[in-house]
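Researcher: Let's try something more involved. This one mixes different molecule types, so please make sure each is placed in the same coordinate frame as the others.
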Amino acid sequence: MKGDNGQLNGSQSEAIVSGAAGLVQISRRRFLQGLGVSSAVGAAACANPAEQTIVPYVKPDPEQIPGVAAWYSSTCTECSAGCGIRVRTREGRAVKIEGNPNSPVNKGSLCGLGQAALQSLYDPDRLRSPQKQTADRLKQDNLYGPTSQTFAQVSWNDAYIKIKKNVDNATGKKVLLTGELTSAQAELVGEFTQQLGFSHIVWDPTQPVAVAKASEMVYGSYGVPTFSLDKAQVVVNFGADFLETWSNPVGYARQWADSRRSESPLRFIHIEPRLSLTGANADMWAKSNVGSEVRLALFLVGKLIERGRVGALDSGAIAKLTQLTKGITAEAVEEETGVSKQKLLLIADYLGESETSLVMAGGAATSTSDPLPLLVAVNLLNVMLGNVGKTVDIAAMKKPASSAQQMATLIKDMEAGKVDVLVTYGTNPQFTFPSAFGYRGASNRVGVTGDSKKAGLVVALASHLDETAELADVVLPIHTNLEDWGYVKLTDGSVSLIQPSMRPIFDTKSFGDVLMDIAFNSEKPIGGESKSFDAYVKAGYFKAVGTKVTGSADEFWMSSLEKGGLFTSPAKAAPASVSVNAAAFALSFGIESSRRSGGELVLYPYPSVKSFDGRAANRPWLQELPDPITQAVWGAWAEIHPETAKSLHIAQGDAVIIRTDNGEVHVPAYVTEHVHKGVVAVPVGQGHSAYGRFAKSAAEGSGSVYSLLPNKLAKGADAIVLTGTLVKVVRAPGSGNLVTVQDFSSQEGRELARTSVVVGGAAAATAHAHGSEHGGHGEAHGGGHEPKQMYEQREHPVYEWGLAVDLAACTGCSACVVACSAENNIPVVGKKVVAQGREMSWIRIERYYDSVPTEDGGEELKVSFLPMMCQHCQNAPCEPVCPVYATYHNEEGMNAMIYNRCVGTRYCSNNCSYKVRRFNWFQYEWPELLDWQVNPDVTKRTVGVMEKCTFCVQRIAEAKDVAKDLGRMVKDGEIKPACVQTCPTQALTFGNLKDPHSKVSVAAKSERAYKVLDHHLNTQPAVSYLSDIRYKA
Amino acid sequence: MALAALVVRSHGISGADVAVAQTGADKNQAASYPAVGVRTGVYNDGQAALWDLNLTDHFHYFGPPQRARGYSPKQPIAFSHVIHVQQNKMECQYCHWSVSKASYAAIPEEETCMGCHGALVAGKSEQGKKDIEYLKDMYKKGEPIPWVKVHVMPDYLKFNHKRHVKAGVTCQECHGQVPEMAQVERVSSMKMGWCISCHRERGASIDCLACHGHR
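Model: All components are placed in one shared frame. Result:
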């Protein structure tokens, strides 16, 4: 650690000191030593490990009381949903990100990716200073570009001089290539491109551009509509993973769950070739052939015409549709899609009979080579069902700017030497744009015509040295979102502010400031009156809110910063008139003719909550997070159907090679029934060759899925073709190093995760315990007779803390797992240690495959997710076996774990019925910089010590502290453990069981409530589960 | 010493009452502490049990000397509480202002020192002058003074100053007669038995989780 610090230059050391400004009482001695060394004082004083320095602030920070957290409201920019966040800081450091309850987008919740933004801020491999490429890129082979070893540090000034020279002298094109920008950045970029003659191209593979295009064709305007799932009775979804990564996952998850636990839950039908997390939450999951979804949608159109449900369509359109749907019978569609006739007819009935419904398409289903027909058919269905203006809001549309077409043209221009200056920011085309297009080679040819070495310049503005930045001539380090200013204009008219939650750690600058500097240097200043980007943001914010300013400008600004922006209550979706473009009917609604030949499979890449499009691969929390469906950790895998696997002689965990003409990917096989036989499904976003140590080590040299994709774009839509590439899958020698944390999928009749089935379409009042249909348990064990107790029963004089988990709302998204890791300093142990069963997470999402009966006597797949954490049992099996009284039951109903008493016998873990206790087999340490995230309120455990869920006892202590100051009891809802706080669907409730009116008491007394294993073991857990609700399909 | 005068032993006293009691204390009362040695007023004479006697402390049988009574490290500045508190009658909370607001008592910011030493007080003794120059120099450079921590606590426990102050525990019950210390010394063992016996005596929580399991 000292060595690491020694390598930092002077200015960086200062940055560290100022960032740390004055820690008063410091929990981690090693960290303090590092601080001492870097500030060049007190190094000698730390010679004795027991001797500690205590460092005061130089000047008091009016916003900080030492030991008390300060919160800063901001906006998450990990995806483009625009969730509001609140960043908890301690002594000037961001330590946790939570959702901002004021934000209408996420209402206080946050997904795992948003929370893991902290690990991007504290990535030990972050760019710390400006760098320039020392290798001559003109000499580089097109395939093997320069690597990070060839960078040398430069000063900002020298870098600016070089950029100015090239910008001023450029004769060819000047291009600014970015990801989706915040509104403030986009406005500044508009000025920048105009002043300096740049053209602006946006590339973000996660943007649903095809959906936006289809909206234009049917609804009349380009954009992604806002959906209201909570207002629909039936939701039919073609592949849009809205509970994971698609569009606005946190917001849609909340809507979905609010409806699912209401009196009249929505009926959810999901159609896709591979079981996704979203599909796993459906009442009916239909496994379809890849690319055949359009036939199903068309079948539904035909059925609706038969019923006369044509909504606002005019007779001409109806005639055209009647023509199109002629001959599409259930039998034919069953043949084409692989979805059974019964299911098809049921879906048609559900939709036809519902008053309000919603049909969606997106995700991998619309990343095919011809996505428009499906999307147009889906939009037409919404028009026919009268959903536009009810569940589909086309007034509030998000307009994605990403363009694959422009990207492809740019690459051609670069290759031809037509581009002289390329500036990249916030996008990683070398990784996320199919490598068949040849970005790497083209990047090396910027400013080159023929053999003449005219000086071109590639500038990467980046926070991390990713694959794209590695190709640049100059790399300028940029603030992460947590150090920057900005605002995001939401579709409902709200403006969500971004403010720094801590001082920059390194010698980095804001993207906006760099643009302003470049423009200023070239004597074409931008930003109007504003001299810096923060001033520009402030001015822009006041412009955006217009007349909504209340009080004095300063007061309004401060209160906006505190709240997180100006949030208006969303206007109700107005019924909108729809003009269907005639071109919509001219599309070919057939299935692609290219049938796969023997041995070839269809590639089905999908974005995962673990890696997104690749931007999340450098976060160890997300790498070690078990995928909710496969339960795999670290890196990618390939999901293959057992029959296909058998024919290819592939077994679970074997190394396989997925090959196309463009490249190959080496991943382990994950054999599962829940994927189509003709499909190999692989999560995108893994297989990095750069982007920091975690992304690279997770990849294990596997190669990226994007390298398999063809050199072509989607028909009609401005997107790349992700789904549908034909690939050869062969077994490679040896094991593929597949590590999963749960190898089984059956509950073995233990009724861990229970399901109540809502019969038919009737409301939830008729809920039955699923178990009772199979021979009577549940109720019989819950109420009935009191079992004899061997141990004395506990008294809880004041508080009895308890948790309730509503399985009807839990989607398995795993945001709680990330929240727990962040809050409780849970170590990331790596793939090898997880393989030994020594993962450290305090909460896990167990996944079970069951079935629920259908009305015709058949069975429908039912996937259960069961969040499992310490159950804080009254009769805890762990407690009596501890020889040193390190774990005991306290007066507040908690199963306490006292680390300093623990001697590591592990008896408690042996005796735990829930396998929730984790043992520190090694002394786990965060690498330098990631340790800045460590929560100072939670003890860091040492080797040889047992640990487990504490109900976030530090938060309980804090709430009690505040309540005591005010001379009252803790109120219901004041304590929110990290998992409860972040849950996008509010599936978790925490509170005092002694208070009969607390939310958790009410939940625990619900007729759906049960306790896991209690009826077998009489453990009397403090955690209640509420059984899942399913429709009989 | 407002706090010295304030010996409130009632429990469940509301925060507001304590605040009133504190501000209402007469400043002149502050000097009236019994000046008969640093351990005066320390709870249980600073020791937890038999194995916590001066003798065992002296030979450091239990733990490092930094965690034993009598630990009095040399500080980068020879700051004397005798001059500041005893002679100039400053209140504890003038400098350690966060003690009633947070779990941390906090070493005062350099700016607090500079409030007096910036222009007005230059020091009398040779050492004093030197130290004040050092302080000014550090302040100018924007560097914190690396004070050596006297009351070193292990990582696995939570000590909340605010709760103790608000419950009426006086500073010197744990820290001793700091106003008499030219160089601050640890006068209490601060071992668990010592904490527990006071908690027992006053009816405070003796649940392990009250202090352990979090920080």
